[in-house]
Each structure stands twice: as structure tokens, then as C-alpha cells.
TrEMBL record:
This is Polyketide cyclase. The lineage of its organism: Eukaryota, Fungi, Dikarya, Ascomycota, Pezizomycotina. It comes from Sporothrix curviconia.
């Protein structure tokens, strides 16, 4: 029996993977959690610093720290990977359901940066129950991908190992551990 095709990121043409200066993809598939168990801690930026130590100075959008479809278009900011806070606009925020994936995506850039320091990124997430997940045996798939444009992105892409790849894996692993802890403590 063939495994069903996994849900993919909806890329803006400007950020298509392979056509930008740096691209990373990280994914986990974990038993014992559902998309509903994970989504609240990804979609609410007030939790991020609790499980990911490479992020800080988070200024949530005016609609609050929880990202919803109504918040799409709102601006927020945060600092990460040693860069000063980046400006961010929420592009997609769709909570998962039993039959559809959760989608979270943002466009980020370094405001006021000169050409040598300018960085533009599109960061997207998928959170979904695996097709083989059942009521008795939950399995969640979390995918995060980022496509970057600019001199800093070119520098990151040539660094071995790629710090974006490692950093995003740390974010995923922290999200999963945090979600498990919260589920156990309910």
C-alpha cells in the first residue's frame, strides 16, 4: 500500500525553493500527539521562548499572540540567529482540523538594512495528523521550511553545518517536547 502524499507548503513565486539563496526543510513525525496537541504552542508566539532558545524580543501583532486567519496581514517582530529583530507579516494562519492541515507562514525582512545585510525570508509550517493516525493511535506530522534571499542567506547556505537547518530542528524538537509536556500535565 502506498503512503499518501504529504501536505506541502504553498510558496510565493519569489521564494520557490532552489531559486533562492538558502533553503532549509525540517520535519518530524511523532506518535502520541495530534495536530490539536501541537498547534496551540506553535500558533501562539507567547510560548515560543519557552521551548526555543534561539528566539527573543517577540513583539506580537496588535491582534494578540495567537495567530488566526483574522490576524493574517498583521505585523509582528522577533530576533533570531543573532540578527536584530526582523519585521514580520503574517501570511497564513489556518488551524488544523480532523481533515485539513494547520498552516502557518510569515514573510520577514530586516528593515533598514543595506544591500550587504538585507535579508528576506518566507517561513512556513504544516501541522497535521498523519493519514494513518487513528483515535487510538495519534501521529502528528510537523513540517517547517524556510526560503531566504540576501547576502546573509548566501553566507548561511555555505556554512557547514547549515545553522538554519540545525536551528529549525531545535525549534521542531522543542515544540514537540513542550507539546508532550503540556499534554501530560493536563
Amino acid at each position: 500500500m502506498a503512503t499518501p502524499t504529504a501536505t506541502a507548503i504553498l510558496w510565493p513565486e519569489h521564494f520557490l525553493p532552489g531559486l533562492t539563496d538558502n533553503y532549509v526543510s525540517n520535519e518530524v513525525v511523532v506518535a502520541g500527539l495530534s495536530a490539536a496537541d501541537v498547534w496551540p504552542y506553535l500558533a501562539d508566539c507567547s510560548h515560543w521562548e519557552s521551548y526555543y532558545d534561539n528566539i527573543g524580543q517577540i513583539t506580537p501583532p496588535p491582534t494578540g499572540s495567537f495567530f488566526t486567519a483574522e490576524a493574517v496581514g498583521n505585523h509582528f517582530s522577533f530576533a533570531t540567529f543573532g540578527f536584530p529583530p526582523v519585521e514580520v507579516v503574517l501570511e497564513e494562519a489556518v488551524a488544523p482540523t480532523a481533515t485539513t492541515p494547520g498552516r502557518l507562514a510569515w514573510l520577514a525582512w530586516m528593515a533598514g538594512a543595506d544591500a550587504d545585510n538585507a535579508l528576506e525570508v518566507y517561513h512556513a509550517w504544516i501541522v497535521e495528523d498523519a493519514p494513518w493516525s487513528t483515535a487510538d493511535k495519534k501521529v502528528v506530522r510537523v513540517l517547517t521550511q524556510e526560503s531566504q534571499i540576501g547576502v546573509p542567506a548566501k553566507n548561511l547556505a555555505t556554512t557547514v553545518p547549515n545553522p538554519m537547518l540545525l536551528g529549525h530542528q531545535k525549534w521542531l524538537d522543542g515544540l514537540i517536547s513542550y507539546s508532550k509536556e503540556k499534554k501530560e500535565n493536563k
